[in-house]
Amino acid sequence: MTFKAVALIPARSGSKRVPNKNIKLINGHPLLAYSIKSALDSNVFDEVICATDSEEYAKIANYYGASVPFLRSKNISGDSSPDFEWVFWLINMLEEANMKFDIFSILRPTCPFRKADSIKKAFKIFSEDGKADSLRAVQKCKEHPGKMWKLDKNRMNPIFDKTINKTPWHSSQYAALPEIFSQNASLEIAWVQSMKKYHTISGKEIIPFISKNLEGFDINSFEDWILLEHYVKNDESLLPIINEKPYIATT
Prior knowledge:
alpha/beta; 6-stranded mixed sheet; 27% helix; single chain
């Protein structure tokens, strides 16, 4: 069975911790260009759409091959706006424009090391499963939740009150603790109907897709950006190859 799929590249303006990070230059190109490139090169999507609230960002996305049929309104583009709001809005807007899709994938610009091959592999796993609502990229956690605490005034209690041979999780070696995976921002794939049914982007049954190496590396802070520059300086091949000349803003 053939499914119509759309890649959604969310790129709102107004980032505070790393100002304008979605269009900040890395290796000569705006950050969002690398996710657009990976989406296009995967050849699994009927459309690659940038979901942005900025006309400037829209021009950049268009230059690198994504379409921007609508601009996001500011009320669904804030720091605390849940993903469901803009995805639901955009899917409905596309359907009203007679652009209907069975599957959507969110490919966040803040994960520039995610490449087309991983998208293709994840898409194949998801589309052949037949029962799952969605697929989400995860990686083995670095900071185990068994060693996390919640504060209660001048005392604290472990998040998980569990033991291994009578030794509390928080006092156990990492290697002795059960494997736990944390989600990253690399990729998500879901059925449109599941999103509408459950009013979440993930639904109930979720396939884990384990990111390899640096593909789950996500830029959330200035320190992350410094690391990104370090990684790219030492190995440009970590990034998808972009053949277009760097974007130059026009007035």
